[in-house]
């Protein structure tokens, strides 16, 4: 008997016909969830549409004795995905936003469609799915959402201005949704995975492929979506069996007085950027504390 179980839960996983999403789907099904396997069936560059990847994963889950239904709509039609969950299983508890593709190119060559197609599938797709599921999660006072980000979003990466932007924006969505979901037991987190898949085919070696199994990422997604988790608003990284969590770090900073000029910033830039006595603000209230102190000092000086 597993401690983490999804008996009675319905999970919707987008882009679950391949790679990480497929691995998540099989894990959830093994742990008792009824699974909506969404996949639009595109190439790694987002071309075409094909129902067979979603159907194949549903067949695999059924052959293992699990329950699953396929949906081959695009995440941009998020409401249709949630409708499939409601029609098939009458509820939805967990959403894993995982669908996506790449359109890598250096910024000076990036077309408008390279930009908008990537924003649409990763960011707007997750918005459309989350927005459709949200009222149902609120109503039942239970929900778990995982948004899939990327190291490219956290750290930036050459040739991925579109993708980096979409992926970091997803964590912005996570952080704000986590606050809004708090009172309704809706936990929202971001996972930045590293795993061998169609998307990494051209950049990693065969040995790396063996070590970077998608199955090494899915357990974190599973835990974050469990009843047992109390994590929310978090940004996690996972790959090859390593798991970590990120947080914001802010320098102690420098409070300047009087009429402040760019020259004053120049004189103080080392102090402003000095992380030796750093803080880790966890929310807007903590982040605003130094402004409050500076305002207090300014008022006292008058
Ligand atoms: P993958 O190509 O194996 O799987 C992505 C799936 O999304 C595909 O099956 C594709 O058909 C589907 N898809 C594409 N557009 C869709 C749409 N509009 N609606 C529904 N489904 C759609 O890729 P993967 O590596 O498993 O990637 C999964 C997620 O993880 C992506 O969001 C990716 O950006 C992210 N990611 C992956 C890695 C990695 O190392 N593999 C690293 C960082 C982030």
UniProtKB/TrEMBL annotation:
One Pfam family from the record: adh_short
SUPFAM superfamilies linked: NAD(P)-binding Rossmann-fold domains
GO MF terms held by the record: oxidoreductase activity; protein serine/threonine kinase activity
Family annotation (InterPro entries): KR_dom (IPR057326), NAD(P)-bd_dom_sf (IPR036291), Peroxisomal_Beta-Oxidation (IPR051687), Sc_DH/Rdtase_CS (IPR020904), SDR_fam (IPR002347)
Keywords: Kinase, Oxidoreductase, Serine/threonine-protein kinase, Transferase
Residue ranges occupied by any Ketoreductase domain in the UniProt entry: 9-202
Lineage: superkingdom: Bacteria
CDD domains: hydroxyacyl-CoA-like_DH_SDR_c-like (cd05353)
Family stated for the protein in its record: Belongs to the short-chain dehydrogenases/reductases (SDR) family.
Designated name of the protein: Serine/threonine protein kinase
Organism expressing this protein natively: Hyphococcus luteus
């Amino acid at each position: 008997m597993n401690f983490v179980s999804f008996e009675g839960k319905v999970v919707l996983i987008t882009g679950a016909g391949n790679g990480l999403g497929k691995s998540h789907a099989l894990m959830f099904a093994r742990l008792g969830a009824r699974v909506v396997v969404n996949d639009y069936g595109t190439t790694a560059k987002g071309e075409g549409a094909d129902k067979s990847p979603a159907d194949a994963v549903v067949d695999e889950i059924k052959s293992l004795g699990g329950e699953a239904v396929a949906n081959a709509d695009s995440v941009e039609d998020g409401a249709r995905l949630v409708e499939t969950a409601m029609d098939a299983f009458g509820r939805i508890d967990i959403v894993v936003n995982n669908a996506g593709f790449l359109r890598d190119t250096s910024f000076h060559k990036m077309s408008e469609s390279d930009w908008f197609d990537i924003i649409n599938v990763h960011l707007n797709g997750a918005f459309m799915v989350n927005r459709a599921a949200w009222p149902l999660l609120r109503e039942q006072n239970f929900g778990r959402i995982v948004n899939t980000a990327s190291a490219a979003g956290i750290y930036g990466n050459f040739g991925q201005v579109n993708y980096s932007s979409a992926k970091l924006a997803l964590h912005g969505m996570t952080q704000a949704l986590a606050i809004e979901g708090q009172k309704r037991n809706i936990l929202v987190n971001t996972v930045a995975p590293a795993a061998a898949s169609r998307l990494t085919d051209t950049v990693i070696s065969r040995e790396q492929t063996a070590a970077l199994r998608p199955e090494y990422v899915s357990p974190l997604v599973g835990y974050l979506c469990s009843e047992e988790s109390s994590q929310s608003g978090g940004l996690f990284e996972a790959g090859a069996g390593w798991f970590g969590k990120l947080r914001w770090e802010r320098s102690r900073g420098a409070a300047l007085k009087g009429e402040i000029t760019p020259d004053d910033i120049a004189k103080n830039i080392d102090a402003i950027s000095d992380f030796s006595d750093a803080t880790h603000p966890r929310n807007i209230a903590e982040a605003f504390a130094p402004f409050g102190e500076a305002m207090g000092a300014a008022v006292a000086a008058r």
